[in-house]
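Lecture notes, part 5. Sequence design as translation. It can be helpful to think of inverse folding as translation between two languages: the language of shapes and the language of residues. The source text, in structure tokens, appears below.
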């Protein structure tokens, strides 16, 4: 089955999702009268005919496009004149991403050839640095508010030249950097900075100096993100860097790795009197005293806290202190290695409106048997959103789970990621609980090959469907001969479509699945959508 080429993005708006240009799929774009606001192009231009098709697409369907994502890994040589002319067919364009552009453009770039009154953000991802030459010449000076750069080779003089022409930037995301680019960056007046440094052998000191000087120059920063998502990435934020961060008087959002910050160093965070959002990450047990010190600091501004702890757990008394000292905390997202009772967090953070807990992978599912235990008299009227992720382990006792839900009097959103017991009794109980839950989002229903969709389970789903606003259900180990009926082979001969007659009858929708063993069903407004559709 061919990937859907015209996809809904809500409110009668659509995007062109172009990965190939078979005649039938491409012509369907022009047969539609839908309002297209996004072009998502991820295909290889192989010849002049492909280029002419793209020109037609931009020219005839680009009038209302606000977002362009263009991945171009082909060796076909594109001229700067053609590229400028195509992009100029998108007069409403606000955001453009160039991804995987490695073949040099040909021809001289016409100065200020891009006539885009609304363009405010450019994202350059895994491209050759020649893309900066094109943008430096084609874009008018001081046009952009936002720039994102990742995986660009030799980010040096060409990058600096481009930055110097875009001094209106307020939001910047960069991966790596050195002193050759520092001067151009120091002149910016940024409000948001995301800087990801990848450790280079024998250069960590100069990289840390670069980071320190960059932070010192950005006195108007409101958001700073220095997190590298690699699990064991080098930490550039030590006490000296952290001290410079804590001198940013307007900072409201901070995301950092705390592996190299000391107990005394973390105290500087009290200087950030406007801080509302914090995300801490660590991979080292020695960071525990740092979190204990952080929890003891009185704070009245912090509203959202994320703790990504992969190798150890914070003791219960530290969380208790955190709840007492951060009294205005509204959202808490944590990763746990041991099995604290969830009701403990509900009691420790009484003002929370959103709680998200990701439990570390359990060697034995029985380890989860006590997480739903708690005082039956405990009630919570503030929590509106609850998300629990058991890393694919099975939730052992569903009765405890439903008893646990009675704690929450005003819960609006529930998301569970686990292997739930998929049976008629469970679905009926779940439907009953929806009388008090306004929004339900369930993730990762694990369906084994011997599961039977009989009349009883379908009736239960009909009851559930009448109360369901949105759900994302994942089916594991899906095999075409064990479930449903094959409808036909896709144009590329790779994927097939399936129906599950009793299930589809129960939920009144159409389901398509990938053939390689798993699939997602996304239900919105009581309709089953194809895997990967937007909510």
């Amino acid at each position: 089955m061919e990937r859907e080429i015209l996809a809904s993005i809500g409110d009668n708006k659509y995007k062109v999702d172009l990965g190939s240009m078979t005649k039938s799929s491409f012509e369907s774009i022009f047969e539609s009268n839908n309002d297209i606001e996004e072009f998502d192009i991820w295909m290889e231009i192989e010849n002049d005919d492909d280029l002419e098709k793209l020109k037609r697409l931009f020219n005839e369907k680009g009038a209302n496009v606000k977002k362009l994502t263009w991945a171009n890994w082909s060796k076909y040589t594109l001229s700067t004149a053609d590229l400028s002319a195509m992009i100029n067919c998108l007069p409403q364009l606000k955001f453009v991403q160039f991804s995987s552009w490695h073949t040099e453009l040909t021809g001289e770039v016409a100065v200020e050839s891009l006539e885009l009154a609304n363009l405010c953000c450019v994202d350059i991802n895994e491209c050759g640095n020649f893309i900066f030459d094109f943008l430096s010449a084609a874009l008018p000076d001081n046009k952009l508010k936002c720039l994102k750069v990742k995986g660009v080779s030799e980010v040096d003089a060409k990058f600096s030249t481009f930055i110097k022409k875009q001094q209106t930037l307020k939001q910047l995301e960069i991966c790596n950097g050195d002193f050759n680019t520092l001067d151009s960056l120091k002149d910016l007046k940024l409000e948001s900075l995301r800087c990801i440094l990848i450790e280079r052998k024998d250069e960590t000191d100069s990289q840390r100096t670069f980071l320190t000087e960059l932070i010192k120059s950005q006195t108007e920063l409101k958001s700073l993100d220095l997190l590298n998502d690699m699990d064991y990435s080098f930490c550039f934020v030590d006490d000296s860097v952290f001290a410079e961060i804590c001198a940013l008087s307007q900072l409201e959002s901070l995301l950092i790795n705390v592996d190299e910050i000391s107990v005394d160093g973390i105290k500087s965070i009290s200087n950030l009197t406007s801080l509302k959002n914090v995300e801490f990450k660590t991979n080292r047990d020695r960071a525990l005293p740092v979190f204990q010190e952080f929890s003891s600091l009185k704070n009245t501004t912090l509203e959202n806290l994320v703790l990504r702890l992969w190798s150890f757990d914070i003791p219960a008394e530290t969380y208790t202190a955190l709840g007492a000292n951060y009294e205005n905390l509204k959202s808490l997202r944590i990763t746990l290695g041991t099995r604290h009772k969830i009701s403990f967090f509900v009691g420790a953070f009484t003002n929370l409106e959103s709680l998200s807990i990701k439990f570390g992978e359990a060697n034995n599912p029985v380890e989860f048997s006590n997480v739903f235990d708690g005082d039956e008299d405990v009630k919570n009227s503030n929590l509106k959103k609850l998300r629990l992720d058991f890393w694919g382990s099975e939730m052992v006792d569903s009765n405890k789970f439903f008893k646990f839900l009675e704690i929450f009097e005003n819960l609006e959103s529930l998301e569970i990621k686990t292997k739930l017991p998929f049976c008629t009794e469970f679905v009926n109980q779940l439907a009953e609980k929806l009388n008090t839950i306004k929004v339900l989002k369930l993730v990762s229903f694990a369906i084994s090959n011997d599961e039977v969709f009989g009349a009883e389970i379908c009736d239960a789903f009909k009851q559930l469907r009448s109360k369901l606003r949105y759900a994302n259900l994942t089916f594991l180990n899906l095999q075409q001969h064990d479930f449903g009926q094959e409808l036909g082979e896709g144009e590329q001969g790779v994927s097939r479509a399936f129906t599950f007659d009793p299930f589809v009858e129960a939920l009144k929708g159409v389901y398509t699945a990938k053939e390689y063993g798993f699939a997602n069903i996304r239900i919105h407004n009581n309709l089953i959508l194809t895997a990967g559709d937007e909510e």
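The translated text above is only one of many valid answers, since several sequences can fold into similar shapes. Confidence is low (pLDDT under 50) at residues 362-366, 446-452, 470-535.
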